[in-house]
């Protein structure tokens, strides 16, 4: 088998071997889909032994991330180096899925932390003081420009989501 799946403590560990390509992705995605309902905690994908990963490997990781996020669970990439890390970085997957050097890094920084849907430090408009809500004409102009940027970001996100969906359709 090109990968192994096992449970350590409450986490599911997926450890891949040398290549994470279309052949491995197809098998892993099939097995993961069958196990997804039984996952009760974080999933750690060990890429340390992986020397080569292609776009189907990325698509499989994103597929797992989407399923786990819907269940309010998390996925972490452990030990990615060389070409796989370069690909994860180039495609900015590391901005969505934490990429850690070792299992110890996971234990230190994330193991006892429950998943959060919203960053705890964010402030919504209704929480801002009344003075901050009153704006001058200059503030209103900045708000208009911010609204336009948000619209562009939403459109960009739609394109990104379509690309992710297209990757998954190819697998």
Please explain how this structure is put together.
This protein has 171 residues and is an alpha/beta fold. It folds into two domains: 116 residues, Transcription Regulator spoIIAA (2-Layer Sandwich); 47 residues. It is 49% helix and 15% strand. It contains six helices and seven strands; from the N terminus they run E-E-E-H-E-E-H-E-H-E-H-H-H. Strands 1-2-4-6-7 form a five-stranded mixed beta sheet. A two-stranded parallel sheet has the order 3-5. A hairpin with a 2-residue loop joins strand 1 and strand 2. Helix 1 packs parallel to helix 2 and helix 2 packs across helix 6. The longest helix has 34 residues. It is globular, with a radius of gyration of 19 Å. The C terminus is likely disordered. Pfam families: STAS. GO terms for molecular function: anti-sigma factor antagonist activity. It comes from Spartinivicinus marinus. InterPro entries: STAS_dom, STAS_dom_sf. This is STAS domain-containing protein.
Secondary structure blueprint with pairings:
Blueprint: E1 3-8, E2 11-16, E3 19-20, H1 22-35, E4 43-46, E5 52-53, H2 55-70, E6 75-78, H3 82-90, E7 99-100, H4 103-109, H5 130-133, H6 137-170
Parallel strand pairs: 2-4, 3-5, 4-6, 6-7
Antiparallel strand pairs: 1-2
